[in-house]
Amino acid sequence: LTPEKARFLAGIPGFGYAQITIDGSREHHNRSRPTLAGKGTYDRILANVAECAGILPITIRVNVDRNNADTLEELLDALREREIHDKVHVYLGHVWDYTAEVGGSAFLSREEFAAVETQFKMLKFRKGMPMAARLPKPKQGSQCVADHPNGFVVGPTGNLFKCWNEVHEDAEAASGTLKESKCGGSC
Question: For residue 45, which of 77, 96, 7, 82 has the smallest C-alpha distance?
Answer without folding.
Answer: 82
